[in-house]
Design brief:
Blueprint: E1 6-12, E2 28-32, H1 38-51, H2 59-73, E3 79-86, E4 89-97, E5 111-112, H3 121-135, E6 140-146, H4 150-155, E7 162-167, E8 182-185, E9 190-195, E10 197-205, E11 208-213, E12 217-224, E13 227-230, E14 236-239, E15 244-247, E16 252-257, E17 261-268
GO molecular function: acyltransferase activity, transferring groups other than amino-acyl groups; purine-nucleoside phosphorylase activity; pyrimidine-nucleoside phosphorylase activity
Keywords: Acyltransferase, Glycosyltransferase, Transferase
Protein name: GNAT family N-acetyltransferase
Length: about 270
């Protein structure tokens, strides 16, 4: 695959209310995906990428990447897949997430089946993707795409986005954050680096409040500062230097700190 020219789009989610809410034609329905939708979601996304003049040229690389991304995020509590259906068939998909290691909030992009393109479905899903992210508590949303793609030209410029040219996009050929080289979340307010093992990172959390999820069981030791943690099914707890908290695999959790915190996180596979 030739060197890709990446662009980034960023939305201030507070401004979404300034725009009119798009309306679906009456033959379509809007739904949040359920478990039985997973297979058809993957098929719809891959076929939509094939119709793009940019992405279609490298579908052999895109198909396994998107399949892995969808499978690895579908059941995560911070992720949601929004669908448009026609006669009970999925014809448009948008995967959204509060947090992803690639530092973007649109997991699949806006994917519309070829027969149903140019009917307003992309605009409709773009708005509701941003609205869903706003409702989850995010202030800003980001996405990356290749310069010249349909999304770059027609979809992502909608709803007050800011476009940034010639950016670097963090990607991994296996769509797998472990082994982790560098995690970059919440506009850089939370960052971590892999250390001399694929199962641990050392990181810094800037003062603030954040939501995370644990793909694997996490054992987190506080190295500097104090961190308030809302462990699943427990009350808020304050952890000081040297103390360890444990997050079960598959759960989301919240943290808060008034000053910067440094931590060591071990992943238990």
């Amino acid at each position: 695959m030739a060197k890709t020219a990446w662009v980034k789009f960023k939305w201030d989610l507070k401004k979404i209310t300034n725009f009119s809410i798009p309306v679906l034609e009456k033959e379509y329905s809007f739904e949040v995906a359920q478990e039985h939708d997973l297979k058809q979601i993957i098929e719809t996304v891959v076929l939509a990428y094939k119709t793009d003049p940019i992405w279609g040229k490298c579908i052999g690389e895109i198909k396994p990447r998107m399949t892995e991304r969808i499978n690895s995020t579908f059941y995560q509590p911070q992720s949601k897949y929004l669908l448009v259906k026609y006669d009970k068939e999925i014809v448009a998909v948008s995967g959204v997430t509060q947090l992803h290691w690639t530092n973007q909030n649109l997991l699949t992009g806006i994917c519309v089946a070829k027969k149903h393109q140019r009917k307003g479905l992309g605009t409709y899903l773009m708005f509701h993707s941003l609205h869903s992210l706003q409702n989850s508590g995010l202030e800003f949303a980001n996405v990356y795409t290749e310069s010249g793609s349909v999304a770059d030209k027609k979809i992502y410029p909608l709803f007050g986005s800011v476009k940034i040219e010639n950016v670097e996009y963090l990607k991994d050929t296996l769509e797998n954050p472990i082994p982790i080289l560098h995690n970059f979340y919440y506009e850089g307010k939370v960052q971590s680096l892999g250390i001399d093992t694929p199962n641990a990172t050392i990181g810094v959390i800037k003062a603030g409040a954040y939501t995370f999820s644990a793909k694997y069981e996490e054992h987190v030791k506080i190295l500097v500062g104090q961190l308030n943690v809302k462990i699943p099914n427990k009350e808020w707890q304050l952890f000081n230097v040297g103390e360890v908290y444990i997050i079960p695999a598959g759960y989301s959790f919240n943290v808060q700190c008034e000053q910067d915190v440094c931590y060591l996180c071990e992943y238990i596979k």
